[in-house]
Amino acid sequence: MTHLDPPVKTLAGMASRLAGGVPSSLDQESTIQFSRALYDLIVANGVSYQTPSGFLQEYMPGQDIKYP
Known about the structure:
By secondary structure, this protein is mainly alpha-helical. It has helices at 6-18, 28-44; strands at residues 48-50, 64-66. The protein has one domain (6-66).
């Protein structure tokens, strides 16, 4: 999963709207506002990380997202 994957871009866009549309790179307060909105959005949707399925396979980095 990278910042270029469509679900990640969609989630970031939703968080940006919830934060008032202020670009998070303008200043520290904007970054905090965006981060807070992103965190609240993730919690509200029950998204959590879990041990990646490739964790037990050597040289297989990965990350899984667990939905409710």
